Amino acid sequence: MKRTVLGLFLWAAAAVAYAQGAPNAPTDKVGVGDAVRVTVFQQPDLATEARVSERGTINMPLVGEVKIGGMTPNAAASHVASALKSGKFLKNPQVTLAVTTLRSRQVNVLGMVPRPGRYPLDDASSHLADVIAAAGGVAPGGAEVVTVVRDGKSQKVDVMAKNFPLRNGDTIQVERAPVFYIYGEVMRGGAYPLAPNMTVMQAIAAGGGITPRGSERRLKLRRPAGDGKYIETDASLQDALKADDVVYVKESIF
Fold first, then answer.
1. CB of 50 closer than 8 Å to CB of 128
2. Pick the CATH number of 179-251 from 3.90.550.10, 3.10.560.10, 3.40.50.720, 3.40.50.2000
3. Whether the Cβ atoms of residue 220 and residue 201 lie closer than 8 Å to each other
4. Does domain 106-174 have CATH number 3.40.50.170?
5. What is the pTM of this model?
6. Do residues 99 and 28 touch, judged by C-beta distance below 8 A?
7. Which residue from 102, 106, 94 is spatially nearest to 15, judged by alpha carbons?
8. Model pLDDT for residues 13-66, shown as the tens digit of each residue
């Protein structure tokens, strides 16, 4: 009797420890494609490792096909135990079920990545940086801050946030990095990355400075106004820039 009680205690402790180290939280539901491990106390022949079918089922010794899709691991274990008991195979089966590989939990990766699409979450890739890497990383011209949409709410997250955990159904949008444009009498006109709180003076520096023919007193700023239209104003060196602004350095009058 003492051995049985001690064995049951050790088995329960091991089950708890395994569940704590498993890749799924206790409230996560088992889904199609997940790999599960089923253990029956003192019944090693009934131990089963299986992948959940498209019907949400696994095959167990003695009882055959058992539906566990959509249940939590604890509820699925109870369901397997009920099947063993109702089939009169065991009087009081003690069953544990753990998800060893998650494939039903997925996230969407969209935007500026080489391989956009749906990616599974498991113990090896459940953080933002891991999933971005699986999608090929941020493509040239992509932003370093991405938008994560969860339950209808969005938040900005650094693309290299290794400790940002993702959840089933999250959508990751990698947007185009903000840029500004500078033309006219500058050494290197073109498009440049827009840094936070960037000014016209810094934009000119990024463009290599003003040519000998240009004048810092003759600056124009064109800002998108929607519908393909722009608003053009005179600019000063301390004016702050916004995404897609166009700075134009005019030729000196003298």
1. no
2. 3.10.560.10
3. no
4. no
5. 0.56
6. yes
7. 94
8. 434 333 333 444 455 788 888 889 999 999 999 999 999 998 999 999 999 999
